[in-house]
Structures are given as C-alpha cells and as structure tokens.
Amino acid sequence: MHAIFLAMLRALFSRKPPELLVDFHSHLLPGIDDGVRSFEESIEILQRFQRQGYKKVITTPHISEQFRNTPEIIENLCSDLQTRAERAGLTIKVACAAEYKVDPTFLDKLKSEERLLTFGDKYLLFETSFHSKPMFFDEAVFEMQSRGYKPVFAHPERYHYLEDDLSWIKSVRERGVHLQMNLMSMAGVYGKEAERRAKTMLKEGLISFVGSDLHRIKQWQNIETALNQKLGGYTFLNKQLI
Ligand SMILES: [Fe+2]
C-alpha cells in the first residue's frame, strides 16, 4: 500500500508541462486591436515564449466589425515584428494569421472568396460573441469547410451561452471543427465557470489545441501557472504547426 502511494506521489510530481512548441493564438502586433501597445512589449513576450521552450509564435490579431484589419495590414506589421525579433537576437520564429469573429462581415468575406489568413494546413481561427451564439454559426462553419478551410473555434470554454450544457459544443466538434482552449482558462483567469468547462472539455477529449490568447505582458505569469500545474499528462496538436 505504502509503495503504491509513493508511486502515485512520484507520478504526480514528475508530470511535465506539455511540450507545445507552437503558440498560434495571441495579439502581439501593436496598435491594431486590443493587444500589446508597443513592439517592445511584443519582443518581451516573444522572449518569454522562447525561454519557455516554444519554437514558433503565430500571432492572430482580431478581424471583426470592431477591428477592421486586413491581411495586408497584418502582414506588413508582421514583417516589422520579424525583423525586430531577429535584431533582438531571438531564435523563435514569428508568423501571423488572424482571429476572425463570426459576424455578417465574416460571412461576406467567405462568400466573396476574399483572401483569409490561415495557419498550418488551412486552419482558420474564429471566435463568436461571448454572450450569444450567432444565428449564422452553422452557415459560417459550412462556408468555411466547403471552401477547404479547417475551422478552429477559439476558447469555447469562455462563451457564457454554453452554460453547463456541452452537448452543442460536442456536436460542433463532431462536425470536424477543432476546439482551441485558452491556457489561462486553466489558471482560472476567466472565472470558475470557464475553468470548469475547460476541465470538462479536456477530460472528454474535445480539445485539439491550446493557445495563450495573450494580449499583454502582464498576463504571462498565468501562462506559466497553467503550463506547470494544470496540463501535465495531456497532448495537443500544436506541435504539428512547427
Ligand atoms: Fe484572441
């Protein structure tokens, strides 16, 4: 009995944080959304990612009715950030995509076949309003998939409209939509309900990817907390994006 107890303790304390290598959800281009305010802040965040063992960061500014960014705006700032990261001596790779909000402008973009920013193998990161599920959610998923995109639903655990019923989100996953949990949900940053939903989704094997969704350097400590204490033992697809 004593030996079993000791083995359990050893297993508990030897659990390593997951080796993620790539983060693909953050807001590190200054001045174009609610993320960082300066390139200095971006560089400081990239340094922390590198120190944590990450090899690549794909940053994803908002594109929505509120933040009317275009691929060109994002790509220009992205190459500026890449140059600055190299000059700062960083070895971590920097790339850019976007986080699209499912609203009428997003549907228009899809239907008119505008160029959309994706990452990896045509993965398309999208989010919805936090309070109500958009009526055209199903239509948006259909339009994405029928154009060959692989939709990745950002931080499902954070949507208040889910409450404690996960049957809808399971049906979304069954339709081939990947779910991306925010690391900070595991550190309780978005409240107890989001933390509870995140843990349930993890246990039920619904989560394909995790992302930082980092907006500011002051949030970094929460990332380390989540990585070191809450996620040992799970595996995610992030590594495939290297
Ligand atoms: Fe985000």
Could you please describe the fold and organization of this structure?
- With 242 residues, the chain is of the alpha/beta class.
- It has one domain: TIM Barrel.
- Helices cover 39% and strands 14% of the residues.
- It has nine helices and nine strands.
- It has helices at residues 2-14, 39-51, 71-87, 104-111, 137-146, 167-174, 183-186, 192-203, 220-229; strands spanning 22-23, 56-59, 62-63, 93-96, 99-101, 123-127, 150-154, 178-182, 209-211.
- The protein is globular.
- The N and C termini lie far apart (44 Å).
Spatial separation of the terminal alpha carbons: 44 Å
Helix/strand structural class: alpha/beta
β content, as a range?
Answer: 5-15%
Question: Helical region count?
Answer: 9
**Helix percent band:** 25-40%
Compute the CA-based radius of gyration: 18 Å
Largest sheet: 6 strands, parallel
- CATH fold type: TIM Barrel
User: Using DSSP, what is the number of strands?
Assistant: 9
Runs with pLDDT <50, length 5+?
A: none
Number of domains: 1
Shape: globular
Mean pLDDT: 92
